[in-house]
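ping. complex inputs:
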Amino acid sequence: MILYDFELSGNCYKIRLMLSLLGQDYEKKSVQVAAGENKAEAFLQLNPKGEVPVLEDSDQIFADSGAILVYLATQYGEQYWLPCDAVSQARIQYWLATASNEIQHGPSAARVIKLFNVPWDYAQAVQITDTLLPQIDQHLSQHHWLAAEHVTIADIAVYPYLALAEEGDINLGVYRHIRQWQKQIEALPNYIALPQATAMA
Ligand SMILES: N[C@@H](CCC(=O)N[C@@H](CS)C(=O)NCC(=O)O)C(=O)O
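pong. complex structure:
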């Protein structure tokens, strides 16, 4: 397997984490996003959207972190990370959609604005985050994991940009159920550390 990766990306980290939790070996190819390598023709052949992560496995190419998590869980996870019953599938899809929408436009956008100084709307990112986090905290006050009785790809999809929220000046302090759930993920066998913003220096 080959992962086209950008170290600081939370979406790429999701895939690195999943591969590690599954104990799968892979080759990592760093894409120089700052230099625009993700918009060059060679990369657009892999993903016309020009975004990382991209995964190549057995001549198949997959883009989008949620889609890649579904592929890895189905191909290598023996129905543990993505159980095949209708209830689990629907619950997991809910959280994958939340990761692509509210989390991407909320805490992820806030982090990109603060780390890379991009001219996006920080107030809007904070507003989306402030609506979302109480919902997740409330959910986790009643559930040990997001979508099932055990960890699933829903948790892996949602975890990174919440755990990295401080880099967007978002304080998780009051959300004690979220913080407890983060510790559960960080205690999983083969957990790997989050990307460090200091890696930019
Ligand atoms: N929905 C996609 C979003 C991917 C995405 O936004 N990737 C960012 C890095 S985190 C990227 O490639 N940005 C570079 C660009 O769009 O130019 C996913 O979940 O993989």
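The chain has seven helices and four strands.
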